[in-house]
Write a structure and sequence with these properties.
Helix content: 10-25%
Number of helices: 2
Length: 134
């Protein structure tokens, strides 16, 4: 299983707004996010995704195309300019990015790994998750 990353969708108001931003900033079929350092485990991230956190919830993912030096002492995280919706799960906010193991990544909505809880209203699902019932 590939390794993934998580990052706050800073400034995004909704998943639709994040999707629009990704499409707006796309150049030559990719979006580039600047980070200070190349991840130490960047080779394990091949085939992975960047999972977006919005309002303390994982809401979607963007496939990672790779990493590239930007020529100014920083690194670009190269993403496909799409937001693939995933099963929403709570995720604490953090600065920068963090690793997410493949076994801990939520399934895409509508995938064979989904278990039906995606059909529940998100508010209800959030409350059930807080109580440890789901």
């Amino acid at each position: 299983m590939p390794l993934h990353m998580t990052k706050i969708a800073f400034g995004a108001e909704s998943p639709a707004h994040l999707r629009q931003r990704l499409e707006t900033y796309a150049e030559a079929g990719e979006v580039r996010l600047t980070t200070r350092y190349l991840p130490k485990r960047h080779e394990e991230i091949a085939g992975g995704s960047l999972y977006w956190i919005l309002n303390h919830t994982l809401i979607g993912r963007s496939p990672i195309l790779g990493f590239m030096d930007n020529g100014q002492g920083r690194t670009w995280i190269r993403l496909r300019p799409e937001l693939i919706p995933v099963r929403s799960i709570p995720k604490r906010a953090h600065q920068g990015w963090r690793y997410l193991e493949g076994k801990d990544a939520p399934p895409d909505l509508g995938s064979a790994n989904a278990d039906g809880r995606d059909e529940m209203p998100s508010k209800m699902l959030g409350e059930l998750m807080k109580m440890g019932l789901v």
